[in-house]
Write a structure and sequence with these properties.
86% helix, mainly alpha, globular
């Protein structure tokens, strides 16, 4: 089944990306994309663009990451894949946060979070809240940042989503240290 093959290639790409093996990850995602194109599966094509974006971000190439998130978004909107739209918007919003484009990021992250709630995607909701927490931290709004990051961490812990737990814990520790609360920073680090 070619659909399952495309999914397997995508999963292998994710595994290699998580290990920092970006070249190998890209080879699998290229196979994912080729298989998706061969069978005309636009949902898998959008997913391949999400995977390419993740690889680019892992390598620190925000421009390439943005190009792939935007391609994924266009495809997901075209085929009316609400969850796919949410994931692509979250990626666009995260890159905008990392670029300090806060006014553009907030609507993306809010819309992605709303979609996450509509489709019951806990990973996506946790990611949106985490990115929103980083946005508030970057703007010096530590109270809002703490609320978003704590809620994100709670969602990731409930779901056992280790990469989310580690990412959000990092930012929550930084926040507590910035606020002069070393004890809370230590407690978060110990939990992670």
């Amino acid at each position: 089944n070619k659909d399952e093959l495309a999914r397997a290639y995508g999963n292998m790409g994710i595994i290699h990306r998580a290990r920092g093996e970006y070249e190998e990850a890209a080879r699998f995602v290229e196979r994912q994309m080729a298989t998706a194109v061969e069978i005309g599966d636009k949902r898998r094509m959008a997913g391949a663009h999400l995977n390419f974006a993740g690889i680019a971000m892992g390598k620190g190439d925000l421009e390439e990451g943005m190009r792939h998130f935007e391609k994924s978004l266009r495809i997901a909107e075209e085929i009316r894949d609400k969850g796919g739209v949410g994931h692509a918007l979250a990626g666009v919003g995260l890159i905008q946060v990392l670029r300090a484009e806060y006014e553009q990021a907030m609507p993306c992250l809010k819309r992605a979070a709303q979609i996450a709630m509509e489709v019951s995607d806990r990973w996506l909701l946790g990611s949106c809240l985490g990115a929103t927490g980083v946005l508030h931290y970057s703007q010096g709004d530590y109270g809002e940042s703490k609320d978003c990051l704590a809620r994100s961490l709670e969602i990731f812990e409930e779901g056992g989503i280790m990469d989310g737990i580690l990412d959000v814990s990092h930012y929550l520790c930084r926040l507590y240290l910035t606020m002069g609360d070393g004890a809370s920073a230590r407690a978060v680090a110990d939990r992670a």
